[in-house]
Amino acid sequence: xxxxxxxxxxxxxxxxxxxxxxxxxxxxxxxxxxxxxxxxxxxxxxxxxxxxxxxxxxxxxxxxxxxxxxxxxxxxxxxxxxxxxxxxxxxxxxxxxxxxxxxxxxxxxxxxxxxxxxxxxxxxxxxxxxxxxxxxxxxxxxxxxxxxxxxxxxxxxxxxxxxxxxxxxxxxxxxxxxxxxxxxxxxxxxxxxxxxxxxxxxxxxxxxxxxxxxxxxxxxxxxxxxxxxxxxxxxxxxxxxxxxxxxxxxxxxxxxxxxxxxxxxxxxxxxxxxxxxxxxxxxxxxxxxxxxxxxxxxxxxxxxxxxxxxxxxxxxxxxxxxxxxxxxxxxxxxxxxxxxxxxxxxxxxxxxxxxxxxxxxxx
Length: 363
Description:
The structure is a single chain. This protein has helices at residues 13-21, 47-55, 119-147, 154-171, 184-193, 217-229, 238-245, 249-258, 265-277, 301-308, 310-314, 324-330, 333-338; strands at 2-6, 38-43, 60-62, 65-70, 97-103, 200-206, 232-236, 279-285, 289-296, 316-322, 343-345, 356-361. It is α/β, with parallel strands linked by helices. The chain has a six-stranded mixed beta sheet with strand order 2-4-1-5-6-7, with helices on both faces. A six-stranded mixed beta sheet has the order 3-9-8-12-10-11, sandwiched between helices. Strand 8 (279-285) and strand 9 form a beta hairpin. The chain is flat, with a radius of gyration of 23 Å.
């Protein structure tokens, strides 16, 4: 799963990126401090891995990961070359989702590019620039496709049809994710266009320390906007998350408890991103490693096997499956089998979130 972080300068994008990746990217109080796009890989906290490890000994525990791409802050006019963020829009065209960081805190010491804090205005500024960037891409692609359509190639004609639909909705000032395409071939063409506004958005409301749990009126304004336009909202105090990332585990737990928090915001961000994208996890467990794997909801057993290795999908025979609750009850895989709780599933089995699997294959 790969997500791109966008937002205005000085809203806390790089601070959040540092907190999530502990990568030490620049986070200064002036616009355009992020010159080059930062890329980091974030392990996604999942307490189910610890539960499995309590009953199955292993050499390593490997969580699912989220890859983050952080670009320079976008400003009004970015689609026409203003600022530095426009140079890096291509870096977020290939991501699965957009994490839009919105400033929802007041602080006279942290400048705002527009002079005051207005999260809805800020969201609309970024949305407009992404819309204009996509519109320019679509117009250029449409011109090229129409030149190549003289031979009557079906794929080119299909591409033109989808580009025209995208052009209409973008010209209306609406993101492409509102375009209703039900046919698989239409969805395939749209995905190939790599339009930024076709991606789902998770809004991260960056708040002060005291508002991390309950939010504030600025967060409520973001929520009202999202209720009308779609997406998800997660309040986060990027500064606190940055402090947490630098602490040892015991100290981290102590700070969380002192703030009335039971987990870092990363866990909430990860769950919200999973929900937004329709994803779920399954696990493999053995003496070498216990590992979480990410798959779409509704994926079949062979498709899940393919995330491990293409040979697993190609030569899929069956999968042995049990639930983590059964492992907690019976304490070992052997006892799960003895209790008749180990299931054998075939090619049509639809994976469930939290399945623990052993795949059998032959190639």
